[in-house]
Amino acid sequence: MLKCGLIGNPLGHSYSPMIHSLLSKEYKYDLFELKEDELESFIRAGDFDGVNVTIPYKVKIMDYLDIISDNAKRIGSVNTIVRKNGKLYGYNTDYYGFETLLVKSGVDISNKKVLVLGSGGASRTVKTVLEDKGAGEIITVSRSGENNYSNIAVHSDCKILVNTTPVGMYPDSYSSPVDLSVFEKLECVIDIIFNPSKTSLMLNAEKKAIKAFGGLTMLVAQAKAASDLFTGRNGNDFAVDRIEKKISKRMKNIILIGMPGVGKSTIGRFLSERTGRPFYDIDSEIEKEEGRSIPEIFKNEGEEYFRKIETDILLKHAKKSGVIISPGGGAVLSQKNRDAMRQNGTIIFLTKDLEKLSRRGRPISMSRPIEDIYNERLPIYRELADMTFELLETPYRSTNALIKKMEML
Fold first, then answer.
1. Given the residues 25, 28, 35, 58, the one annotated as active site
2. pLDDT of residue 359
């Protein structure tokens, strides 16, 4: 079996092993998180048949290669290395990845002004694809130089914005590289980050009715091209869509929203048992963090204090991948919470008859008529949810029916 993998730093966020396991069984794919002073010795030792290269080594790695493809030379960046006949060959499969993302998005870049955030290896690839596809003026924004983040407003007329920086990538998921309010004519945002599936930059674009696309398509497509180089076989291009859908479904969180007492915690535990996903009940996590019950927190500290703790804990868990989360019924009232849930989650609104809701130990539910609370929150639940599910007679039946419905998403 061939020995392949990914080199870079950091690599804790990587989906690549999962993607390559779906692409081919001809090689084993590992992660090699290397410090800069370890890079050359790893390459010289040559204990691999092929590797992908990611941040921050896509340019530096070229110093250690014997042969570099014409396209990679033109771009000035390598992200795939193959060992053949004792020599190291460098390629750029990110080109195919970003090209695929552009085609799939359907965005017309012809003769349009494009702002590219970042000046590293990924930026070089993106700019080359944009040039080849007929973009108009292409401006690179970096931390220093003529076009930087302090004077970015001079390019307020750009139509397309592409983020190639790691700002907003897990675990710093709630950051954004720029404020979109300065761009008056923006039509589309492309963020090549793939974790979270919707970065803060993308969410901000969607709030302004601007099209936004993430980087998972690019990641899977470049991996497919790299796999072809590793194995010497041309795989089916349709595998990109199939694998992207599978990875997205597997890595997105399942977030259960709904009224207090509807049964989110119970269904969450059942789903966890059935799927093997970790489950986080936010109210329980708050009680563990505080060392006291929710009613005690409300009595002694008030609702404002509770909501702050709720947001802190929800944000900590919402940026994870592949977990199940049950926020409190009122967590949706905060825009910050809603954004965090949207970033990496499939959001399911659980419903049942109001008279069947449990109110014991729930300070808000006991303080006001339940109908008033429901009417206040219902528009938010509906707007936030990817799916609405009416619970059945038992948690067991509800869980089975819910899993079947989720498989159709």
1. 58
2. 63
Q: Is residue 368 predicted with pLDDT exceeding 80?
A: no
Q: How far apart are CA 132 and CA 120, in angstroms?
A: 19
Q: Give the Å distances, CA to CA, from 41 to 46, 195, 228.
A: 9, 30, 26
Q: What is the pLDDT of residue 357?
A: 80
User: Does the active-site annotation cover 207?
Assistant: no
CATH of span 252-407:
3.40.50.300
Contact 19, 54 (CB under 8 A): no
Inter-CA distances, 97 with 121, 161, 322, Å = 14, 17, 24
Superfamily per CATH, domain 96-214: NAD(P)-binding Rossmann-like Domain (3.40.50.720)
Alpha-carbon span 297 to 131, nearest angstrom: 58
Per-residue pLDDT tens over the stretch 267-302: 999 999 999 999 999 999 999 999 999 999 999 999
- In the structure encoding, which two tokens stand for residue 1, read together? 């079996």
CATH of region 2-91+225-241, choose from 3.40.50.10860, 1.25.60.10, 3.40.640.10, 3.40.50.2300: 3.40.50.10860
Q: Give the pLDDT confidence score for residue 102 in this predicted structure.
A: 96
What gap in Å lies between CA 351 and CA 262, rounded to an integer?
Answer: 7
74-113 pLDDT tens trace: 999 999 999 999 999 999 999 999 999 999 999 999 999 9
Nearest to 271 by CA among 408, 405, 409: 405
Helix/strand/coil for 341: helix
pTM, to two decimals? 0.92
